[in-house]
Target: Glycosyltransferase family 4 protein
Amino acid sequence: MKVLFDYQIFVAQKFGGISRYFAELMNGVDKFEDMSYSLNVFGNINHYLSEKHIGAFNFVEKIKKYERKTHKIIKKNQLVTLNSLQDPSIDVFHPTYYDPYFIQVLKKPLVITIHDMIYENYPDIFSSDSPIAHHKRLHIEKADKIIAVSEKTKSDILKYYNLNDDKIEVVYHGINLNQSLVYEDIRNLPESYILYVGNRYGYKNFSLLVQAFSKLSKQFPELKLVLAGSSLAISEQEHLYRNHITDKVIQVAATDEQLNLLYKRALFFVYPSLYEGFGLPILEAFKNECPVLLSNASCFPEIAGDAAAYFEVESLDSFVSEMKSLLESKLLRESLIKKGKEKLINYSMHSCIEKTIKIYKSLG
Model:
């Protein structure tokens, strides 16, 4: 059986959970004797499609004349994919994001992965011009099988779309349990800090974290907040200033290896989101033996179970209280580390790949 993947996430995302998911999935498919895949990408910017993958991924060299012409890169990639869809050796198509450029001409079985339902649950925080929810609906309506990354995501899909339950299969994200962790040093990393990872807008509930940390820092003056992710925007800097923690917050544009170090040395990792489809950083924290504090919202209790501490998602007092408990109790932190390592066994990448291949084969 041969699966076709497309270009989308690899020309849009340098780092990130979705691109890593597809890169790991393709690596896994390649290890099964009766499975193969095809991928052709122009203008790749993605870290996970590095030099060592070029041969295996049938990678097409970046064309320099398209470097600053994103629309031309996209058009070129779409034409390549549409041509590949005519290949009789292709059994299943699995696009890597939600552009519906192929919908009208697709005659192959379609598998899609829904990573979250954020646009549907929180439409007000996104631009009214954003086409993603509409594009996603077109995918959902066309798909032969839908992979949901959690039971919560599946229930949200069924909440918004009139589908048969058996059209959706829950396949949890996985992490490579056998791959050794690699660490890269970071200069001037503080001795005592709480770690936050990823984007900080809207549903991420970052504002509540700022307020909670501001209160907490009065009791723990040496404590720092490390943000692994993009540079702080002006409005975020002002928010820190108003909460008197500008000098207590450190932003790091971390590599994967530096991120491992940040998890490893953090007192704990905090994930305050109002909503997530899965929450891959939870697994990263577990693997790096980092205690985890989550909001009690969305899929978090489903994914982490008793291996994390929780606060009431919209309660500042609850947030401060739970952070204080973790800071003051080394025993609690050690207990969560132990439970996290045990929980991680449920999320092997091998299991994710096997279940996904089973879905492919059900359509072949």
The chain is about 40% helix and 15% strand. The chain has two domains: 2-174+348-363, 193-346.
